[in-house]
Amino acid sequence: MTQRLDDEHYPAYSIGRAAEMVGATPGFLRSLDEAKLLDPQRSGGGHRRYSRHELRLAARVRELLDHGTALDAACRIVVLEDQLDEARRTIADQRNG
Fold first, then answer.
1. Is 71 helix (H, G, I), strand (E, B) or coil?
2. Number of structural domains found in the chain
3. I need a surface site. Which of 1, 37, 79, 83 has the fewest CB within 10 A?
């Protein structure tokens, strides 16, 4: 159970709770699903479940939109930022390991 709490990719949040945490609407999160930025897992009943990682991506898109960036551009920026962060983590792991 503790592993799940530490796992940023564990789908712990319902769409309503995720939207509340991001400061958006469930419709906003669904639009990010449609834009292929997010791919939430589904519960046994078919409900979307979001991870902390997905919430961080959604919050960043929300921030960019609030500053006037178009949705498609915001999604692309967030994908590139996420890829850069992953590359930096990989490099740091290789240097330390």
1. helix
2. 1
3. 1
